[in-house]
Amino acid sequence: MQLNHAAPDFSLFNTEKKKITLSELKGKNVVLLFFPLAFTSTCTAELCSMRDNLATYNGLNAEVFGISVDSLFSLGKFKEEQKLNFDLLSDFNKTASKDYKTIYDTFVCEMRGVSKRSAFVIDKKGILKYIEVLENAGEIPNFDAILRVLKDIK
User: Residue 15 in contact with residue 76, Cβ under 8 Å?
Assistant: First the structure.
């Protein structure tokens, strides 16, 4: 997977049990935020930061999605508790995480197949314009860099 190449397509369910397919979002810029696990401190901070700044992303014609390997049911509870104003998608079967090469072999407590914290910006034509995959789950993506890329491709 490389910058300026086509983003891997996927179809995942959101917390309302609606299937979201990346290729059907052409015409909009897309921000994908893969995160390890709902209800953990860094994931909560990351997604609440996005919630609080969502108007800025929407103003740049960007649709934001949080993606984790949690079930859509636990993601629904997490979204409700944190009052998140964007879709969370369940990659329970780990297909998107594998396609985006953002999956731990082994995470804390010997959990296997957890998504790495990462961010991807995909332009209106489905081309990857930003890739950030963090090995350290305690770090948060560079939101300033994501906004710069979105402004450039707006």
Answer: yes
Structural domains in the chain (count): 1
CATH of the domain at 128: 3.40.30.10
Calculated CA dihedral for residues 116, 118, 123, 129, nearest 10 degrees: -110
User: Residue 129: pLDDT band by 50, 70, 90 thresholds?
Assistant: very high
Which residue range is the domain that position 46 belongs to?
A: 28-153
Q: Is 43 considered catalytic here?
A: yes
Task: Confirm whether 126 is domain-assigned.
Answer: yes
> Which amino acid type is present at position 143?
F
User: Which one of 12, 30, 33, 43 is the catalytic residue?
Assistant: 43
| Cα 91 to Cα 19, 68, 118, distances in angstroms | 11, 6, 14
Instruction: Answer yes or no: is pLDDT of 108 > 70.
Output: no
